[in-house]
Amino acid sequence: AKNREPQDFIDYINTRYKALEKILKQHQELKNTVSINRIANKKEKESLAIIGIVSGKQVTKNGNLLLVLEDPTGQKRVIVNKNKPSLFRNASDIVLDEVIGVVGVNVESVIFANSIVWPDTPANKELKKSDEEKYVLFLSDLHVGSSKFLPDDFEKFLKWINGGIGNEQQKRMAKNVDCIFIAGDLVDGCGIYPEQDKELITKDIFEQYKECADLLKQIPKHIPLVICPGNHDALRISEPQPQLPKDFAKPMYEMNNAIMVSNPSLINISSTGNFVGFDVLMYHGYSFDYFVAEVDSLRNQGGYDRADLIMKFLLKRRHLAPTHMSTLYVPDTKKDALVIERVPDFFLSGHIHKSATANYRNITLICGSCW
Questions:
Q1: What is the pTM of this model?
Q2: What is the pLDDT of residues 26-79, one digit of tens each?
Q3: What is the DSSP string of 94-163?
């Protein structure tokens, strides 16, 4: 690891800006954008389009929304008028540091917005279908070691996946399970929050991973387990998180069917000679807390009970943690691993211990609950 300088953060944000600008430029209305420093040459009241990162947001004394947009060449103030209710409502959800496009009219030193364009996922994305009937399981947040872990329920799950319980249809499903995803927080960890030890049955992190591996070993060996870490696991919290550490989680690596991936990751499954397979975006979901706290519409529509809305919110922005403070991150100057560059077929998350499923523009959203 190297020391990080302020310049690394600037380069990282510029890398992110370029990646999202590229996605935004695929939108018809942003084909001919101007860079902010060239707006001065435009005629008064001329219509124009810009792409910028949101560096400021406030409500003016007249009740309009004032945004400050910044691109590599400069800054521009944008007014969203409250007399355009649907535009105003959408713009109220804008968070700092996201990258958006604005189409509007230039008057004196501000742009009056007529429309706002988010990077978003294509509205006409095809719904892929495989020729074979197979099942994929999504689990998250096992929290092995916690006094709140539910061994009896997990035991039931193990019996079912081994074909021991369930009706005919459930047994057929168990037999056709092709792959299991586990989206982080495999163990409860140690010292994650104050006085956590009072809620731990197993107080040793090595022991927690051993117990977790002992449970997962009871899943039939032919089923691959795709596992990413979460914020309770024994490694850095800053994202992207690497795979689970071999020194702490050695027993997990001794399972031949375990595939360790980073958080987040994009995994392709079920591809055959004539089918491209499904792309699964797996993200534990650490940034969810921030957006539930900061975005009124998410909070007012159910907050943590509506993981699907949080996931749609992030897909619309094509970024897993658009605001600088929404998650700890490593400023990689070459690539922002939290940009959703490829549109997935499935988006899987966990973290908030509430299950939700939904469909957004032919992307299946699944948030696992917890054990």
A1: 0.96
A2: 999 999 999 999 988 787 888 999 999 999 999 999 999 999 999 999 999 999
A3: --TT-EEEEEEEEETTEEEEEEEE-----TT------SS--EEEEE----BTBTT--HHHHHHHHHHHTT
